[in-house]
Write a structure and sequence with these properties.
The protein is of the alpha/beta class. It is about 35% helix and about 25% strand. The protein has eleven helices and 14 strands. The protein has a three-stranded mixed β-sheet. A three-stranded mixed β-sheet has the order 4-5-6. Strands 7-8-9 form a three-stranded mixed β-sheet.
């Protein structure tokens, strides 16, 4: 069994005195799901894409994003020694419901190990051993594509997930919306106290950033279909799990729909599901 040091990466960092606007821009530009927080060149904590999304859409203040300090949402870290086996690392992630571990050697931070790294390990070393159907999550969160945006955002927050599949009224999946899809929009509007929403060509609506979860504000006036990604990446139920992992890595996504023999979505296969497979390896 490989160890943490074999698959860890050099962490992407951001200074503790940064603002949420700085964090959001860095996550978007670098397409990273988490950043380590530093102060005086020492690692002090971590901020993840999911933490950022929940805060952005639940924060009820009128502050601009560049007025909100990173310190309000950074989290403490869980560490492992560089010699810890990858299956043990996977177990630790699953037990603590986290997506990364800080790797240390002689009490010094030497890297970060993420779900993506464990998926990369599985795809390289376990071809043809498992199928998608064994580890997929049969439940997946969904909303109708013509529903107001706030319903999809609240669904993600309430379920602790970062994606929602969208269906039309014929129950056919037509798209997906994720926290990442919403970040750029939040960044654009978050630096203004009031932002003009021209969804209705006749009546313009002024809304604050917190309107994402407002039934009467922006979140109620915009449909999910206006911000969704129109393509859903999918794999077959009996596909090799390692190949599915390769697809997630190639597309730089966290999850894909799982199709039955009738081409209907019967679940989601995510990086977390593949980490679960690593946890069971001996």
């Amino acid at each position: 069994m490989k160890c943490a040091k074999d698959y860890m990466n050099s962490p992407r960092t951001i200074k503790r005195d940064s603002s949420l606007a700085d964090v959001l821009k860095k996550i978007i530009d670098e397409k990273k799901s988490r950043l380590l927080v530093t102060e005086n060149n020492k690692i002090m904590g971590l901020v993840s894409e999911k933490d950022l999304g929940v805060f952005l859409f639940m924060d009820a203040s009128e502050r601009k994003l560049d007025e909100i300090p990173l310190s309000e949402i950074m989290k403490t870290m869980i560490t492992v020694d560089e010699k810890t086996g990858l299956n043990k690392c996977a177990e630790l992630m699953m037990r603590n419901l986290i997506g990364s571990l800080i790797v240390t050697a002689n009490d010094e931070v030497v890297g970060i190990l993420t779900k993506t790294d464990l998926v990369r390990y599985f795809t390289k070393t376990h071809h043809g051993e498992k199928i998608v159907g064994e580890y997929m999550s049969p439940y997946y969160a969904w909303q109708y594509s013509d529903a107001p945006l706030y319903k999809a955002v609240l669904k993600m927050i309430d379920d602790g997930i970062s994606r929602v599949v969208l269906r039309n009224r014929d129950e056919i999946p037509v798209g997906i919306v994720t926290f990442r899809d919403l970040f750029e929009l939040a960044l654009k509007q978050g630096n203004y106290e009031d932002v003009l929403d021209n969804t209705d060509p006749v009546i313009s609506i002024i809304f604050p950033r917190k309107g994402f979860i407002s039934e009467s504000g922006f979140g109620g006036s915009v449909k999910v279909s206006d911000v969704m990604s129109k393509s859903i990446v999918s794999v077959d139920y009996d596909e090799d799990l390692a190949k599915a992992g390769m697809l997630l890595l190639e597309k730089n996504i966290n999850g894909a729909g799982v199709l039955s023999s009738r081409d209907s979505i019967v679940g989601i296969i995510s990086k977390t599901d593949i980490v679960k497979a690593v946890a069971f390896l001996k």
